[in-house]
Amino acid sequence: MAAESPTTDAVAAAAAEPVPGAPKPDPILVADGVQRRFGGIKAVDVDHLEVQRGAITALIGPNGAGKTTLFNLLTGFDRAEHGTWSFDGRPIAGKSGATVARAGMVRTFQLTKALSRLTVLQNMLLASPRHPGERFWLSWLPFTWRAHEKAAEAKALEILERFKLDTKKDDFAGSLSGGQRKLLEMARALMTDPTMIMLDEPMAGVNPALVQSLLDHVRALREEGMTVLFVEHDMHAVRHVSDWVVVMAEGRVVAEGPPSSVMHDPAVVDAYLGAHHDTDLGDDALLDPAVLARLAREEEDR
Ligand SMILES: Nc1ncnc2c1ncn2[C@@H]1O[C@H](COP(=O)(O)OP(=O)(O)OP(=O)(O)O)[C@@H](O)[C@H]1O
């Protein structure tokens, strides 16, 4: 099944040629020659990558393929040795995470230990852009920061309501379930009104009963006109929500295409089989109850 009610931008993405580095009809993010080494390992070595505006793009690949490193580089949380990239026509290579976020490209972060000790609402307020307390001269004007705080809190509560987390606003973030944490990560990112949102494994640690709701939230972002790029290991989620899939292996983009076909690409099968012989590439036949029962028995016997 393809993503439900795709936008025209998402439909345009599906028309792109399914080859690594494929040009997109209306790219919002364009990266060239991006390289990052750790010691002797080339963690990222991406020749060319374009992300279609208004579409949901999944970034997949086996462990150690370089997905997180590429995320970190593009969003200004790590420095590339080589490469250029632009967002919405603006060069942003080498810019700080804060500058990239202000340009409209925002990533989610997994809830750290420190953030777990704050309440849900405090987490939201920390994500609020340009907190006046961070700017020395404004911190001397109490009316300025009070007005800012009031507006930020109203916005935070509105977003929390959308994610059905408003009743949890005073709970410690650490007390949330896996799925609720993922919703909070998404909610935090929305505090900055992004044009493009980059989700780091939105389905990791989520109870299967909540997966559908999370997928609906991801689709809703696209319906609002946002561009979504997400790293994910859950291939069923990738199949069901993405308009386009980019596959990385050993730092490179080895395949791209619509979710229905890319999983059958020999380069993808090779990349996964090289790393894991038991990787589920999202084949829906695996949803057959008999197959699932067999996998569960095999897991128990391990
Ligand atoms: N800070 C670091 N120091 C040294 N090596 C690193 C560092 N970060 C990543 N690496 C290495 O770079 C390569 C790519 O790692 P990365 O975490 O980007 O892969 P990934 O595709 O996100 O993997 P996963 O799916 O397991 O999260 C791996 O070989 C990893 O060990």
Uncertain ranges: none
- The helix tally amounts to 12
Biggest sheet character: 6 strands, mixed
Mean pLDDT: 84
Coarse morphology: globular
CATH architecture of the domain at 8-104 and 194-301: 3-Layer(aba) Sandwich
The radius of gyration over CA amounts to: 20 Å
Attached small molecules: adenosine-5'-triphosphate
The CATH class of the domain at 8-104 and 194-301 is Alpha Beta
GO cellular component, one term: plasma membrane
GO molecular function: ATP binding; ATP hydrolysis activity
InterPro entries: AAA+_ATPase (IPR003593), ABC_AA/LPS_Transport (IPR051120), ABC_transporter-like_ATP-bd (IPR003439), ABC_transporter-like_CS (IPR017871), BCA_ABC_TP_C (IPR032823), P-loop_NTPase (IPR027417)
Biased composition (Low complexity): 1-19
Keyphrases for this structure?
about 300 residues; alpha/beta; Rossmann fold; 4-stranded antiparallel β-sheet; globular; binds adenosine-5'-triphosphate; ABC_transporter-like_CS
